[in-house]
Design goal:
Elements: H1 3-23, H2 33-36, E1 45-49, E2 52-58, E3 67-76, E4 89-93, E5 98-100, E6 103-106, E7 113-121, E8 129-137, E9 140-147
Antiparallel strand pairs: 1-2, 2-3, 3-7, 4-5, 4-8, 6-7, 8-9
Length: about 160
């Protein structure tokens, strides 16, 4: 073999190796954290009682989250929405353990329309279901329940 043939052979090996590595599937280590720890998608729930509509959307529920966030929207034309959302809200897991809200980020008490987010410390490990209770909105307790399908990675 001449030197030119050797260089062409080496070059061909390098090019072939590049294409083989490029087409190889990604290992679990190569997948970004965003893909391996996706948020658990839970549906929006609405409760309409005593002339008040309360809508809750879980927005940050995952094994990797330090805090769980629930967007809350309340609307009425009759009742004053003056409750302390942290004191009047509670999260419960599938075993009946209760968790107090740690923060309300949103509109202060008062008025007929309020929006904000209830923040809780994350429940670990992620339970099979959660229930959010909000008391004293229109004089009733509002209950929102979600089943959680936890991937095998977290079980």
């Amino acid at each position: 073999m001449s030197k030119i043939e050797i260089y062409i052979f080496i070059f061909a090996l390098i090019v072939a190796g590049f294409f083989i590595l490029k087409s190889a599937p990604l290992s679990k280590e190569n997948i970004s954290n965003d893909q391996s720890s996706e948020k658990i998608e839970l549906e929006t729930k609405t409760d309409e009682q005593k002339d008040v509509t309360v809508t809750v959307t879980p927005v940050d529920i995952s094994e990797k989250s330090e805090k769980w966030k629930f967007n809350i929207s309340m609307s009425t034309h009759i009742v004053e929405l003056s409750q302390d959302m942290v004191l009047n809200s509670m999260l419960m897991d599938d075993r009946g353990k209760e968790y107090a809200a740690i923060q309300w980020e949103g509109a202060p008490p008062g008025g007929h329309h309020r929006e904000g987010a209830l923040i809780y410390n994350a429940i670990k490990p992620v339970p099979k279901s959660i229930e959010l209770r909000i008391a004293d909105v229109g004089g009733v307790i509002r209950t929102f329940k979600w089943s959680i399908n936890v991937s095998k990675e977290y079980e």
